[in-house]
Every structure is written in C-alpha cells, then in structure tokens.
Automatic annotation (TrEMBL):
Transmembrane segments: none annotated. Its main location: cytoplasm. This is Phenylalanine--tRNA ligase alpha subunit. Keywords: Aminoacyl-tRNA synthetase, ATP-binding, Coiled coil, Cytoplasm, Ligase, Magnesium, Metal-binding, Nucleotide-binding, Protein biosynthesis. It is found in: Cytoplasm. Belongs to the class-II aminoacyl-tRNA synthetase family. Phe-tRNA synthetase alpha subunit type 1 subfamily. Residues 111-320 form the Aminoacyl-transfer RNA synthetases class-II family profile domain. Its EC number is 6.1.1.20. The gene is pheS. GO terms for molecular function: ATP binding; catalytic activity, acting on a protein; magnesium ion binding; phenylalanine-tRNA ligase activity; transferase activity; tRNA binding. It comes from Jeotgalibacillus campisalis. Tetramer of two alpha and two beta subunits. GO terms for biological process: phenylalanyl-tRNA aminoacylation. It is an enzyme of class 6 (ligase).
Amino acid sequence: MEERLKQLQQEATAKVEQSVDLKQLNDVRVAYLGKKGPITEVLKGMGKLSAEERPKMGALANEVRDDITKAIETKQQLLETAEIEKKLTEESIDVTLPGRPVNSGTHHPLTSVIEDIEDLFLSMGYTVEEGPEVEKDYYNFEALNLPKGHPARDMQDSFYITEDLLLRTHTSPVQARTMERREGKGPVKIICPGKVYRRDNDDATHSHQFMQIEGLVVDENIRMSDLKGTLNVFAKRMFGEDREIRLRPSFFPFTEPSVEMDISCKICGGKGCSVCKGTGWIEILGAGMVHPNVLEMAGFDSKKYTGFAFGMGPERIAMLKYGIDDIRHYYANDQRFLTQFGQKEFK
C-alpha cells in the first residue's frame, strides 16, 4: 500500500507538470483527488491492515494528498499568469492611433430661451410654479372669468377628454391653482412655464402643441406702471438694451385692462421693414391687470389686492431672437438645425 501511494504521487505530479492549460490541470485533480480516484480506492483497503499500520498509512495518504494538491495549486498559478500575459499580448492597444470623435450635445434653443427667461424672473424675486397638463375645465376657464358658454372660449379650440377634463390651452390654470392655495394671502409672484395644447393646423407659425410662460404678481398697490416696468426689463434683457416697447389696448377675459406688448424691430431699428411689415414694431406677448373676478374666485379681496399677469410663447421669442423662420424646426429633431446653436451664447 505504501508503494502504491508513492507511485500515485509520482504519476500525479508528472501529469500536473505536463498540463498545458487549466482544463487539463482540473482533469488531473478530479482523476487523483476525486471520490472515485485511485487514492480513495487505496484507502478503502486500510481495513485489512493491522492496528499498528493504519495510523502510519493514514498519515502517508494525507501527505500524498497534500503534496498533489500543492503541486496543482502551484501549476494553476503559473497557467493563470501565462493566460493573462497571452491575453495582454493579443489585446494590445496601439496608443498612436487617433481617438474616436465624441459628439457633445447642446441645449435645444427652446430650452435655452426658457432657462434664460426663468433666470431673469428668478433674479427679480419670482418663483417657478408648475401644474398638470390634463386640466379641469374649472381651472382652465371658469376660474379665469371664462364661464361655460363664454364666446371667448372659441379663441382657444380645445382638446377635451371629458366634459370636465381637457388638455390645458394655456398655463393660466397654474396661476389660479397657486392663488387658491394662498387662501387670499399675498404676495404672489410666480412664473409658470409648460406645454399647452390647442386644436390648430401645424404650419410655419402655428402648432397644436407649444410652450408658454406666464407670469403673475398679486399684492397690495400693484399698478399698471409695475407691469410696464417689468416688461421693459424683460425686453431689454432678452433682445438688447436698445429695444423699446409699446403697449396697445387689447382684450383678455382674465385681465382688465388688457394690453398687447410690441418691441421695436431689431432688423430695421423701428424704421419699417418686411419683418415688421413696415410698422417698426413686432408683437411679442399679452398682458394686463388681473380681473377682480379672477381675484375673488381665488379667494382674494379685490378691494385690497391688485395684480398683473402676462403670457408669452418661448417659440416666438426664440424665432425673433435668433431669426428662426419656421416653428416646426423646433420639433423635427434635425441635427443640421440644432447644431447651429451649439456655440451660440444665449444672452
């Protein structure tokens, strides 16, 4: 039995040295150290030995098993190291090759204009409020002095989901919800950017989905002069310090009095050209003093509080600011259009 164990040790050690990969080495381990291996078979015959020989053979068997295990582990480390070195050699990288170009993204022109407008009004003490795009008829119309059947509703062809739910046609519902949450306590000073939806035919200047930013200020002693001063600062920051503004009378159900704001044409400097249709002015947004009915429906005392509101379309502002001639460019995902704004500074 002793000779057999030493013979198995020599055979196993020789086969370990002859192994050229990890698979062969594992086969040797299973063949000699497995439950069905020759060493196990030899140990099964220990019952025939005398009581004096059994401890001696048991110690020898453990020694043989340990030597074979150690030889396998040593060989395994060598084979793994050789395999890693082989992979490194085969997968070597030529550091002299030119790198692959990485295309860096830029802000969409609409996103940049919206962020510029938000930054401007945040610097003036406003906060940004948001609301649901699927809106209740009450907040979209009734709370804004547009009861059911009001003819002014025809100005905003709407996508109705049910009789009381629709896709909001403007971001004014955010103003109504915000005033309602304040429970009649001022001041309120917010802007409300977001998507709006109207049943309109898509063309160069119209879209069934577009962005809108509205502003609202409610406090004691708010006057039309405060509105004009705010809009004047906005125009000069967005379009240049040399821009002039004018306010023209208009009508909106939720403001009284209401105005349209024009800015002097950047192209002709107010002299008249094809862009401004010879007038020297370009319409930019609508505004006015908050109607007392709107204040009362939101829980504000219209004898104590007054306010002003304004609404603008970022698409139109971006078109005027950067000379974009078709609103559909914003949504076509044409990289030839979008990359034009990669290096521009949005001031």
